[in-house]
Give the backbone structure.
Amino acid sequence: MNYHYLARQPILDSQERTYGYELLYRDSEQNAFPAGLDDEKASSRLFYESLLFDGTEKITEDKKAFVNISAVSLLQKIPDILPPGNLVIEIVERSLVNEGVVEVIKALHAKGYVFALDDYDGKSQWDVLEPYMHYVKVEIQNSPLETARHIELVRSRFPTAQIIVERVETYDDFDSAKLCGADYFQGYFFARPEMMQKINLNPAQMTVVQLMALATGDSLDYQRVSDVLKKDIGLASRVLRLANIACKTRKQEIVSIKSAATFLGEQALRKFIVIVSVSQLTTHKPFELMRLALTRALFMQLLGEHFMPKRSDTLFLLGLLSLLDAMLSISTDEVIDTLHLNPEFATALRAYEGELGNILSIVTCIETNDWSAITSQPLFNYDNGQDPDVFSINYQQACDYADELLKELQL
């Protein structure tokens, strides 16, 4: 599995509480900016390789995400590919400020994007940006007096902006910057940039993963699901095909996600989205992997009718997700991180613990024909009619239904 890399360095307030992170492009495990790489390439790669796929909220744990961007990338409106959210766009000091750049900043600012001016040098060329800058970043100067004068200059030129002091490397740097009235602080005195490694999915896989993340989230946003499906007509048609198979009695064909949700209900739609997503991810994998995933999901749904009837649909989703590591050739932790799975799913997949995890454990025991392990499970109880023969019958039912569904889907 290939990976992409980035680093993050915390930005703290005067009480040394983390306010946000500056996100830094990396192209390897080496925690350093790649030699010979220009601002434009670094900007676009950070946005397209990391932020677009991983989401700034996930990377920064919902704190502010400060991201450097070049003038060229601004003119290409690259920030527009991400929602404003917690994003702070840093205009680097090497940028050329011209009418085109100012117009793009103005337009993005009107959409709710927040800007910071990086490494402010006091030159008058930046004055035109004053109405749009929420933050101005300055470096610690050679002496506390010079730092104070520099911060005073920022206050006079950008009266409404908050000031972030960079390259804080000692307590004296921190103390003097605080006394000068700086709002936030960044530097080696607090922490060096922390490396982060993320899986590298191709665009087609990423579309599928985005879809699965939506389908397994707390609430299903039909509009966002529709927007993702627009990127892959094949995926969309297969989801709607499943919806129409489930609604054979309808005379009118279901042609949209919204109408599918209306006639199927949210839980059924979630299941169909994940089925199609899993089938897409197993295109270049052995067919038996898809069959096993679907059989496991259907069997877990049947077990849910015995153990927890109100959660059978949730168990179906967990069954499909439990083999996603094999489908993507990544670890379970990476599956959890990539899909932003909730703690209950994470615990079930990692440790087979909790209500959902206990069911998953029973399923894996049945798959390996380990009946002695099944009867020792905490949920198993002969007195409640949980006979292993019943589970064996249910497993065969799941296998048969999986084969039927795969045939109908032409997989």
The mean pLDDT is 83. Residues 3-199 form a domain with the TIM Barrel fold (CATH 3.20.20.450). The first helix runs from residue 39 to 54.
